[in-house]
Specification:
The structure is a single chain. The chain is mainly α and 234 residues long. The chain has eight helices and no strands. The longest helix is centred in the first third of the chain and has 29 residues. The relative contact order is 0.20.
């Protein structure tokens, strides 16, 4: 059966991915910047903003692009056999482009802030990498469990995924920034010039997403994954 995503023109899907990622980074890292400058949000408030924006944008554009907003999620769907290989590079470019546009805009709006919400390890590199792998594994497992094919759509998916993002940000944010998303880390790194630890946030989420596919397949068997290279489920 042809995926419902494939019925949407690629241009529409890429605009939705770029726009959704723009808002994910704008609201989430914007909340960090505003809290740092004005002290009006607590750490839990920032975590709630990340979860809420994920919920809202999944509800808004999940039926257009699948609402990945995250290169690790896109690659996870590829590994699970739910997304055509030809869509992967355009999706990732759209996501990274949206994140970079957001961070450059925040740089213009808040020039006094040095970090721009960049993700930096508070402890050791090993601790940060392992924690990012584990929390991304959890995120991708939830996404695979509540999505149809490569499409995250509806209140149930939005609540589950947004809830997990808020949960992970609440307890892992002080340690790693709780990125779980290479695009979310690339944008602030570009705007702030803090590149040294970016490799953690590029590699760990991809590994975590791939591991989640294995865990999901063990739990759900053929209900989780299509054969590699097979058609996405709809």
């Amino acid at each position: 059966m042809k995926s419902m995503l494939m019925k949407q023109p690629l241009r529409n899907r890429l605009v939705a991915e770029a726009f959704g990622t723009f808002w994910l980074v704008f609201a989430g890292t914007g909340a960090i910047v505003v809290h740092d400058l004005y002290g009006v949000l607590s750490h839990l408030g920032v975590a709630a903003v990340f979860g809420l924006v994920v919920f809202v944008m999944i509800s808004a554009v999940g039926d257009i692009s699948g609402a990945h907003f995250n290169p690790a999620v896109t690659l996870g769907f590829l590994v699970a056999g739910r997304l055509p290989r030809s869509d992967v590079a355009p999706y990732i470019l759209a996501q990274v482009g949206g994140a970079m546009a957001t961070s450059l805009l925040l740089r213009v709006l808040f020039p006094a802030h040095a970090g721009m919400g960049a993700t930096l390890p508070a402890g050791s590199v090993v601790q940060a990498w392992v924690l990012e792998v584990v929390i991304t594994l959890g995120l991708m497992f939830v996404i695979l469990s509540v999505s149809t094919g490569a499409r995250e759509r509806g209140i149930t998916a939005g609540l589950a995924i947004g809830g997990f993002v808020a949960l992970a940000a609440a307890f892992a944010g002080p340690v790693t920034g709780a990125s779980m998303n290479p695009a979310r880390s690339i944008g602030p790194a570009l705007a702030s010039g803090q590149w040294a630890d970016l490799w953690i946030y590029l590699s760990a989420p991809v590994v975590g997403a791939a591991l989640a596919v294995t865990v999901c397949a063990c739990c759900r068997e053929d209900a989780c994954c299509s054969p590699p290279g097979g058609a996405s489920r709809a």
